[in-house]
C-alpha cells in the first residue's frame, strides 16, 4: 500500500514538473541522436536542471534568491560569450574578404619593397628611395644589368641630409624599356668614412593578391622579382 502511494506521489510530481516545462516551452523529448550530437548545456537543459532543483530543495532550508540569480547570470554570461564568439568569427571572415579585395586593387600598381632589383614601370621609369642614418657629403646611384653586371647609368645626387632620399631614372633608353631587362640598383654615400654601400628600396609591380590559412591570415602580394610579401608591410604605392 505504501509503495502504491509513493508511486502515485512520484507520478503526480512528474506530471507537475512536466506541466512547468510545457509552460516554459522546454523540450524534454529530445531523441537519443539529438542528445548524442550535443556536448553542450543548452537553455532547455539549464531550465530543466533549475526547475528540478527548485522542486527538490529542502523546504526547511531553501536556496536563497541570490543563488538562483547568480546561476542565471552565469548561464547568461556563457550564452553571451558564445554569441560574441560567433559574431567575431563572422567578422573575421568578412575582414579576410575585405583584405583580399583591398589587396586586389593593387594589381598593376607598384609597391615600395626593400631591395636593389628593378624594372622599368609602365612609364618606362625606375623609382626608389634609400635612408641615410646621418647627413652625407656625397651620394651616388648606379644602375647596371642584373644578368651581366654591365653599367647602364649612374647619377650623382650630391650632399643629402639625414633620412629618406628619393631617386629615379626617367630617361631609360627604349631598348631597355622594351626588353624589360632586370636592373640592379646600387647606392653609395659618404657619411664621413668614404663612399659606402647603402641598401635601397625600389618600386616593383604587383602581379597578384591572395590569402591562405585561417581567417586571421593577412593577405599577401606576389611582387615581381620579390615573390610573396605581406600586404601589411607595404606603406607606399605608385
From TrEMBL:
InterPro entries: FlgD (IPR005648). Pfam families: FlgD. Keywords: Bacterial flagellum biogenesis, Cell projection, Cilium, Flagellum. It comes from the Bacteria. GO terms for biological process: bacterial-type flagellum organization. Belongs to the FlgD family. Required for flagellar hook formation. May act as a scaffolding protein. This is Basal-body rod modification protein FlgD. The gene is flgD.
Amino acid at each position: 500500500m505504501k509503495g502504491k502511494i509513493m508511486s502515485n506521489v512520484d507520478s503526480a510530481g512528474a506530471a507537475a514538473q512536466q506541466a512547468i516545462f510545457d509552460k516554459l516551452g522546454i523540450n524534454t523529448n529530445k531523441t537519443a541522436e539529438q542528445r548524442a550530437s550535443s556536448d553542450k548545456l543548452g537553455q532547455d537543459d539549464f531550465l530543466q536542471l533549475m526547475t528540478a532543483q527548485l522542486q527538490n530543495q529542502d523546504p526547511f532550508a531553501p536556496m536563497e534568491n541570490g543563488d538562483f540569480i547568480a546561476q542565471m547570470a552565469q548561464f547568461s554570461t556563457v550564452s553571451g560569450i558564445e554569441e560574441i564568439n560567433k559574431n567575431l568569427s563572422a567578422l573575421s571572415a568578412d575582414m579576410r574578404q575585405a583584405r583580399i579585395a583591398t589587396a586586389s586593387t593593387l594589381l598593376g600598381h607598384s609597391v615600395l619593397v626593400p631591395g636593389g632589383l628593378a624594372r622599368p614601370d609602365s612609364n618606362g621609369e625606375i623609382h626608389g628611395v634609400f635612408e641615410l642614418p646621418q647627413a652625407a657629403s656625397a651620394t651616388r646611384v648606379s644602375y647596371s644589368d642584373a644578368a651581366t653586371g654591365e653599367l647602364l647609368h649612374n647619377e650623382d645626387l650630391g650632399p643629402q641630409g639625414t633620412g629618406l632620399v628619393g631617386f629615379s631614372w626617367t630617361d631609360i633608353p627604349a631598348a631597355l624599356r622594351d626588353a624589360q631587362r632586370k636592373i640592379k640598383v646600387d647606392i653609395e654615400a659618404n657619411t664621413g668614412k668614404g663612399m659606402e654601400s647603402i641598401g635601397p628600396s625600389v618600386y616593383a609591380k604587383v602581379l597578384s593578391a591572395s590569402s591562405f590559412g585561417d581567417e586571421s591570415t593577412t593577405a599577401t602580394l606576389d611582387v615581381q622579382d620579390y615573390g610573396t610579401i605581406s600586404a601589411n608591410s607595404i606603406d607606399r604605392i605608385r
